[in-house]
Design brief:
The chain is an alpha/beta fold and 426 residues long. It is built from 11 helices and 19 strands. The radius of gyration is 23 Å and the shape is globular. 37% of the residues are buried.
Length: 426
């Protein structure tokens, strides 16, 4: 492996195609990497953009040597040595047939296990663990089931084996991810008794000595049960932080989005999580401008956000995805109206976030130190449990010299909209 594309023998671009912005970024990256491809080098494109637009990519960007679907990247070695000699049962040898430029499985089924080679990049103290792949939900705006295939959950012992290896390599924080985290295990059997559960997984991961924080991402509001809530509340290593995209609160909008539950379920979930999990931090996201969203429905969403006072919330403007049910719906919202609604909703949330942070001034918190801040060499940068890596703000530490990956006690001294400042408690 090399640290820069210049001079690399092979450049692999792993792409996203979830929304328009992700598609544009993926295409821009492919074009940029094509400029770095040296003579005799190879450019391989994989991931969701490859899964969805393989033909268009091959036609429009001839510099691409191989296109592998979202579940076909395990064929990378074959793609890179297509003319290798293979031995026949007769003892004779022949050149293996080259793989086609495009290799995309119609329905992705691959899921990696703990024995799959993994090269860690970035900070070693925080790691992502994918516990399942694919999604079975019919959300009308989402293309993921077509790109990633049906849900397939990894066995608990396999996940734990990977987590132990990561912990031995320095990981203090495990970020559990899947397209539908709370549906983990549902694909393993027809009856609840035959399935493994997310709660069981959390308890097993909590037994790993080196791990300090276990964080849940991408949960689904109607999939929480008592067992899971109890596990989050009682397991000391499971941080009290729940990422649960709600998308909307209007019953009419939830029906158009085919979310499979009512606003009552959403409101009851928020109430239950706060009642049963001490100091829980709830992060969510919403979609504004979905086809059919009226002024009244958007106002209802704004009122809900103002009332619920989420610790973290993001808003996305609706992105038309060909092949989804929503793309066929009438009454589309103009782009400028969507942008205005996004700004309005985020301004409501900004004030809530600021208020919550100001309420933390004077409190003592535990901070996972990331390293020297990019803002100033005189500041350290870290996160308390209420800040997930990459998506939330950070906590700045104004004094002390602490190595990355350290867990320290600090006292909050200042608050901004999304960040905190604190001093070390020595």
């Amino acid at each position: 492996l090399v640290t820069a594309p210049e001079g690399a023998d092979v450049i692999v671009v792993n792409t996203c195609a979830f929304i328009d912005a992700a598609k544009e970024e993926s295409v821009d990256t492919i074009l940029e990497m094509a400029q770095h491809k040296g003579k005799g080098g190879k450019l391989v494109v994989t991931g969701c953009l490859a899964q969805r637009y393989a033909g268009e990519l091959a036609k429009d960007i001839p510099e691409i040597d191989h296109i592998l679907g979202s579940a076909d990247f395990q064929s990378l070695a074959k793609a890179l040595s297509p003319q290798a000699v293979v031995k026949l049962p007769s003892g004779k040898t022949k050149a293996r047939k080259a793989l086609p430029v495009i290799q995309v499985s119609e329905t992705p089924t691959y899921i990696y296990d703990h024995e799959a080679p993994r090269k860690r990049i970035g900070a070693l103290h925080s790691a992502y663990v994918k516990i399942a792949e694919g999604c079975d939900r019919p959300c009308s705006f989402c293309i993921i089931p077509k790109l990633r295939g049906p849900q397939r959950s990894r066995p608990i012992d396999d996940i734990v084996a990977e987590a132990r290896a990561l912990a031995k390599g320095g990981a203090l924080e495990l970020n559990l991810i899947a397209q539908d985290l709370t549906r983990y295990g549902w694909d393993q059997g027809s009856s609840p008794a035959s399935r493994q559960t997310l709660a069981q997984l959390l308890r097993e991961l909590g037994k790993i000595d080196e791990v300090a924080w276990i964080r849940l991402h991408y949960t689904f509001p109607s999939a929480f049960d008592d067992e899971l809530i109890d596990a989050i509340a009682s397991e000391p290593k499971v941080v009290k932080y729940i990422d649960v995209p709600l998308q909307h609160i209007s019953d009419a909008m939830l029906k158009r989005m085919r979310r499979g539950h009512s606003s009552r379920v959403t409101r009851e979930l928020v109430k239950t999580l706060r009642a049963r999990i001490d100091n829980v931090v709830i992060r969510t996201t919403f979609i504004v401008g979905h086809p059919g969203e009226t002024v009244e429905e958007f106002d209802e969403l704004c009122a809900f956000v103002s009332e619920a006072k989420f610790d973290r919330a993001g808003a996305f403007t609706y992105s038309i995805e060909p092949g989804t049910t929503s793309a066929l719906l009438p009454h589309r919202v103009d782009a400028d109206v969507m942008a205005e609604r996004q700004q309005t909703l985020m301004e409501i949330q900004r004030k809530i976030s600021r208020e919550r942070h100001e309420g933390m001034v004077g409190q003592e918190i535990e901070v996972l130190v990331e390293g020297v801040s990019s803002e100033s060499e005189y500041l350290l940068e870290g996160r308390w449990y209420g800040q997930a890596p990459g998506i939330d703000g950070v906590t700045y530490l104004a004094d002390g010299q602490v190595p990355p990956g350290s867990l320290v006690r600090a006292r909050v001294t200042q608050a901004s909209d999304y960040d905190l400042a604190a001093t070390l408690e020595l």
